Amino acid sequence: MSTTAIPNRGVETLVASDILSPNRIRLPRLGASVSVAAAVAISSAPSLLPRSAVTAALFTGIMVALALTVAWAGRRVFGPRRPASLRLRAWTVVAAALISSVALASNMHWQNRLRAAMDVEPVSWSYAVDVTGGALCVALVLCGAGDALRRIFSALGRNRCVALLVTVAALLYTLAVPFVRSTLSASYSASNSAMDDAVAAPTSETRSGGPGSSAPWRTLGREGRAFASGGQDLDTVRTYVGLESAATPDERVALAVSEMERAGAFERSVVVVAIPTGSGWVDENAITGAERTFGGDVATVAVQYSDKPSWATFLFAEDDARRSANAVVRAVATRAAAEPTTPKVVVYGQSLGSVAGSDAYLAVQQNISSLCGAVWAGPPAGSVDTDGAAVLANSSDPVARWSLDLLWSPPDTTTFTIDAPRPPWLPVVGFLQTSVDLLAALDVTSGHGHRYGTDQGEAMARCR
């Protein structure tokens, strides 16, 4: 009886060929592996501020989804190519995993350097696990949603897709956008008017909202009431005019000057014109620093021009801020110059307040001698003139760094105060990282990020 010989290929050869069969193993394309590694490396690059695991996971997941979308679009545009060998794809997956692991470990080390400089609790390896797991979930959800939309659009056809997109865009523009804007505006107005029982009206005649004041306490707005009742020395002059204190911008400026005269502001050696941020907020640290610097011989005035957050005012009503600042600075400086013993006038602004204040200072300083100087804290990149002004900008402040120029050129750091380790600038990457840091610009203590301390007031010492 004859038997058929079976080739002796060896168990190892049989197992290996079976496992490595393309029919058994599905490995990512080269482009997908490279895209994921690049996305993780970019999202893990050094940031300006400590970043929570949730924020890091969202950023990384979004970047991975975008990178995979770009890789898919590239295949659609340039056409499919012959798949790479299984071995090459396997090595690419290993390399991508290694690069991603190194990037995450490096990011964790950088996070702890930042946290040590800012007195924030350090992170452990669980941080990297949370970021990895969260990013994976975000990327899967986004890619799944994208694939579902692609299938829907494919089923509908090009003409129906265009019609659907046009219809949705029209509805958003005509209905959704006005509704959201109206709702937010009403919310901001209600928040501005809401009374806080924990903030009591001042009992000093040197404060707006106090005895004899022509600006009633309830009209000062939330931020104005906090400003007028604040400070350690209640004998200092603090005058504030809110949106509800007078009907028009000109009337508010006139009321501010009248309030200053009533409170004896022009009898002080120094008058600080504080340009508020969009919501009407004036940094208490700055005013406390000024009152300490000048030994209480100082008066501060502020006029509210908006009840909306700075970002909304900056985008939609920046001209209101500029016009208000110009009118207030001009009126106060002119009135101060008429005094026999002319008080020195300092213009102060933080963030959006510095943008509006800078324009006003430049417009008025040439003609009115009572203007002594200006202090700009945390100004948006390239938005203020530094001539005759002291500029305070933390090196970790994303507001002071962010601009479209970050896409291709490093930021100008000549006015920065080094408060934490500084990340190296990289094209595009620096812009993306700084954009994400904007979300946490205020989630730090004074002296870091977009938070400033009493050194704002101390910078006014040149006007003694």
TrEMBL record:
Q: Which residues cross the membrane?
A: 55-74, 86-105, 125-149, 161-180
UniProt keyword GTP-binding, yes or no:
no
Question: Which keywords does the record carry?
Answer: Membrane, Transmembrane, Transmembrane helix
InterPro entries recorded for this chain?
Alpha/beta-hydrolase_catalytic, Alpha/beta-hydrolase_N_dom
Q: Where is the Alpha/beta-hydrolase N-terminal domain?
A: 45-231
Please give the residue ranges the record annotates as the region Disordered: 199-219
Q: Where is the Alpha/beta-hydrolase catalytic domain?
A: 237-383, 391-460
Q: Name one Pfam family in it.
A: Abhydrolase_9_N
- What protein is this chain from? Unannotated protein
* Annotated source species: freshwater metagenome
